[in-house]
Amino acid sequence: MNLTRRQALITALSAAAVAGILPRSASAQSLDEAIAAFTGGAEATEGGVIITAPEIAENGNTVPVEVEAEGAARIIIFAAGNPNPDVVTFAFGPLSAVSRGSTRIRLAETQDIVVMAEMADGSYQMAAQEVKVTIGGCGG
Amino acid sequence: MISRREFLQASVAASAILGASGTGIWGRLAAQQRLMSQDDLLNMDPVGNVTLIHVTDLHAEVKPIYFREPGINLGVGEVQGLPPHVTGTDFLDLYDIEPGSPRAYALTNTDFEALAAQYGRMGGLDRIATVVNHIRAERPGALLLDGGDTWQGSLTALRTDGGDMVRLMNALGVEAMTSHWEFTLGIDRVTEIVENELNFPFLGANIFDSMWDEPAYEPYRMFERNGTSIAVIGQAFPYMPIANPGWMFPDLSFGIRENRMADVVGQARAAGAEVVVLLSHNGFDVDRKLAGRVDGIDVILTGHTHDALPEPVIVNDTLVIASGSHGKFVSRVDLDVQDGAVRDYGYRLIPVFSDVITPDADMAALIEAERAPYAAELGEVLGSTVNTLYRRGNFNGTWDDLLCQAMIEEREADIALSPGFRWGTSVPAGHDITREDLFSATAMSYPECYRSEMTGETLHLVMEDVADNLFNTDPYYQQGGDMVRVGGMGYRIDINQPQGSRISEMTLLRTGERIDPGTTYTVAGWASVNEGTEGPPIWDVAESYITRHGTVDIPPNQSVIVTGG
Predict the structure, then answer these.
(1) Which of A31, A46, A64, B399 could form a disulfide with A3 if both were Cys (CB 3.0 to 4.6 A apart)?
(2) pTM metric for this prediction
């Protein structure tokens, strides 16, 4: 699912660039750049990364996100729709019991949280989850 | 005059009274009327050794009510056309229910006016007490569970800050509940009730302290019944601080928290649970998805979206039970539990026909005592209605059309917005509108009717935002209300488009002109989630409108064009 989501994301962002929506294309470029900076251009496979984040943010100014990837040496969180998508990188030493970190992110708008993990063998894994930022007020 | 009870039990007499020749709708209805007795409604073949009794979304309705089920309740994505997204005659066909029968009246909007006149009001906590006592006598140890939205929705609940409902549900013998509108009483009142007034646990596995992200309420309670360990997990409405005013309970965080649910199910099993029941206020589609993704839940007693289904929907070996709203139904679930697993089940959705089920005298007395201080206020007639006033339906209902018209006239607005709440009872065509009726459609703790200015662009943004809460193809992104109701403006909606592209052709009805993104319009609305909203309560605005008109005539709303359904 997430490989296709990632492809969809990239396609959507490329489309936005073609359409000339400048803020979107600007952040698309920096997301790609940020991903490339983390992976060194290596391909990532989907899975092995657990994201715990709300589907709909209760407060877009402080959205709790927890990430875990068993056996990861480093985990990076991207907020794909923020002006600076690179949020945080967690590094785990060989004696770490678990590779897990949590933080709170300010989200400008509805967007994907993209998480990539560098595994001990140098391979990369990833996952993504949409977090919706809504006006709210009409639940039943 | 013949009493309604006798009337229902004498179908021959009924057709004589109706004076029909056997042709046309009235004759058909009379011919299809069936003998109906309390025993017919309550009896079922018992199964196994565990019984659950479920009520949910009472919205503080303790007296029998009219409630018209929705005519439009669309599903999108994977759930398109699946229950509960089936209405009217399609629903009757799906469940093989005879048109014009009591079950047809209880479960659909078809022929509502005619059937309401025949079968009368439904619900009433004194009738529910009779049903509960009957089941308990037959099935000792039956577990009574309340899915929440219990302390809000009536004039008396508003006046007593939910106190009447807490006392009555204690008397009914509820053994655990979960929550949604309860929190709109404000966190201090909720804490006071939970700590000092409630006789049973207030469960919420998904309610956390927002600062420290620690559980704020008991996640589950274990019950031992007839030698079987039953874990009841509570799940409050996930989008509490988004759909309702977060400032009323500022230190709490909710959410679906699927991983947490899997953990709690595991804890309950590890603690010896042979049956795991999720008492949920997620809404039907969210619970259906959750059932497919979290293993180990035997039964989900769902709530929030007010669906009533005569059969369980089974997903991943989980029974998903939808028990309706406003006291119209009581669910009885029998389980045969052997060697720590559910081997068989029996289910009955019991429709509470108030003229057929004898009121429990003790509960009736308690209800009257709660209502006595407000009796004059409740019974005051404000006017009458030409057409049936109802709320349910994805895009509009006549109650909200009335409220929107009232806001436009009384507050001199171009456009009026009324939230897509699913609670509120119906007033059949030709009936008086009492103050009790008006409060059953409006009573809540943030009723201020604001008047402000919005650009066409902002209006479009609001409409798109709400539409995505309803028609996002992923149920986890739905909040479970209906579309915001609009007065003074028409629009087209394509429910299968993504957010930002669903709403088009927004038109100011007064002039017939398209809404201009850059133009500012005067907009009135109520139930804003923003703190400090100013204006008269919506019931004052509506009362002024109703008393001024005397008889209100709300025609069918034709200003919303739906495609993609």
Answers:
(1) A46
(2) 0.91
A114: CB partners within 8 A, 6+ apart? A6, A9, A31, A35, A77, A78, A80, A85, A126, A127, A128
- CB-based contact, A15 to chain B, within 8 Å: no
Tally the domains of chain B: 2
CB pair distance less than 8 Å for A134 and B423: no
- Tell me, yes or no, if A103 comes closer than 8 A to chain B by beta carbon: no
B47 and B196 co-located in one domain: yes
Same domain assignment for residues B216 and B316? yes
**Which ipTM score applies to this complex?**
0.86
Which of A54, A137, A139 lies at the smallest CB-CB distance from B255? A54
Residue B510: CB atoms within 10 A of its CB come to 11
Specify the pLDDT at position B34: 53
pLDDT of residue B172: 98
CA A27 to chain B, closest CA, distance in angstroms equals 20
For the domain spanning A2-131, the CATH number is 2.60.40.2470
Each residue's pLDDT tens digit, A93-126: 989 999 999 999 999 899 999 999 999 999 999 9
How far apart CA B280 and CA B303 sit, in angstroms, is: 6
Of A57, A132, A138, the CB nearest to B481: A138
Does the beta carbon of A55 lie under 8 angstroms from any beta carbon of chain B?
yes
Is there a single domain that holds both residue B349 and residue B467? no
Question: Residue B17 domain-assigned?
Answer: no
Say whether A139 and B241 touch across the interface (CB within 8 A).
Answer: no
Range of the domain at B308: 36-65+121-369
Phi, psi of A115 (to 5 degrees): -125, 130
The answer to whether A109 faces chain B, any CB pair under 8 Å, is no
Judging contacts by C-beta atoms under 8 Å, the chain B residues touching residue A135 are: 461-462, 465-466
Predicted pLDDT of residue A19: 38
Q: For B226-298, where are the E strands, in sequence order? A: 228-235, 252-253, 275-280
CATH of the domain at B306: 3.60.21.10
Least confident window among A12-16, A27-31, B547-551: A12-16
Q: What is the pLDDT of residue A16?
A: 37
Residue ranges of chain B whose pLDDT lies below 70 = 1-35
Nearest CB among A54, A110, A140 relative to B420 is that of: A140
Burial of B4 (0-12, 13-18, 19+ CB in 10 A): middle
> Which residues are B518's β-sheet partners?
none
- Two tokens, residue B236: 């409050």
**Chain B residues touching A64 at Cβ < 8 A:** 213, 253
Of B210, B419, B499, the CB nearest to A138: B419
CATH number (domain holding residue B425)? 3.90.780.10
Give chain B positions within 8 Å (CB) of A52. Answer: 259
* Burial (0-12, 13-18, 19+ Cβ within 10 Å), B214: exposed
